[in-house]
Amino acid sequence: MEIKVEYSSVESQISNVKGSLQGLKAKSEGSIEGNVLDTADKLNELASKLDTILASYKSVLEKNLESTRQAVESMREADATIAGGMQRK
Predict the structure, then answer these.
(1) Residue 89 has pLDDT above 70, yes or no
(2) What is the average pLDDT score of the chain?
(3) CA end-to-end span of the chain, whole Å?
(4) Rounded distance, CA 20 to CA 15, Å?
(5) 34-38 long-range contacts, Cβ below 8 Å, gap at least 24?
(6) 3-class state of residue 74 by DSSP
(7) Is the pLDDT of residue 83 over 70?
(8) Long-range contact list for 55-64, CB < 8 A, 24+ apart?
(9) How far is 50 from 43, CA to CA, in rounded Å?
(10) What span, in angstroms and rounded, lies between the C-alpha atoms of 25 and 28?
(11) Are 5 and 66 in contact (CB under 8 A)?
(12) Segment 35-59, tens digit of pLDDT
């Protein structure tokens, strides 16, 4: 059984996700000033939480992308080692 990894394709997709991640920004409108309504306070609180969640999501995704990149590199090195051993036989 053979498992074939197309490294260039995987690396290309990792780069695409990284590029998309760079463009991901929270678009909260900022505080609603001068309004004493409970709804405005709640919206401000939700916007702040959304910004925090988005920052956390980006951080986790960046770590996952790096782990994926390292795993692909490890597979590439293992393939090269195995291929080298097979050629010597």
Answers:
(1) no
(2) 84
(3) 19
(4) 9
(5) none
(6) helix
(7) yes
(8) 55/26, 58/21, 58/24, 61/17, 61/21, 62/18, 62/21
(9) 10
(10) 9
(11) no
(12) 567 888 888 899 999 999 999 999 9
Give me 79's structure tokens. Answer: 């393939």
Task: Please classify residue 16 by burial: count the beta carbons closer than 10 Å to its beta carbon, then call 0-12 exposed, 13-18 middle and 19+ buried.
Answer: exposed
**Sheet strands (E) in 1-89:** none
The one-letter code for the residue type at 63 is K
Torsion from C-alpha of 49, 53, 58, 59, nearest 10 degrees: 110
What size, in residues, is the chain? 89
b vs e for 59-76, b when ≥16 Cβ sit within 10 Å of the residue's Cβ?
A: eeeeeebeeeeeeeeeee
